[in-house]
Specification:
156 residues, alpha+beta, 6 strands, 24% strand
Amino acid sequence: MRKNLYLIILSFSLVSCYTYQVKKQANTEIDNNPQSKKTAVIANNIPAQIKDAAESQGLSNAQQMPAAINVQEKLTPNKNVKIDVDGKSYKIIVDRWESDSLVAHPVNNSKKVLKFHKNQINSEKIAEKRFSQPIADIITVVAYAGIGVAVWSLLQ
């Protein structure tokens, strides 16, 4: 029984409520043109066959490039992030930017200095360390259930 209790305590100490999550990019284009609002309303009323024909002819309008993501704006000093550089993943804390190079150190080793050029960093896979409420809720429920089982076993 004691070994199981120690194992449970050890497993709870290794679980973290913080996870690395990639921030979703919001569409930054704001459409204030009243003419385009009218065409959007009209386009919603057009039958599907006509829409398909129009889309096949005007593919250039339908295919819009996503907004360029500025790596330097995403990686500000003292941020705890997970980045992908040339296919390898690093958990780092950003120190500063020197021209086009990122100077950072690994999360567990503040003495080691890492330098990456901004073109090496995959901007789509920059994940910030954030608090995860669902994981915290799961840990809380499991802890309460464990306490309940411990009290029940003591009373038996």
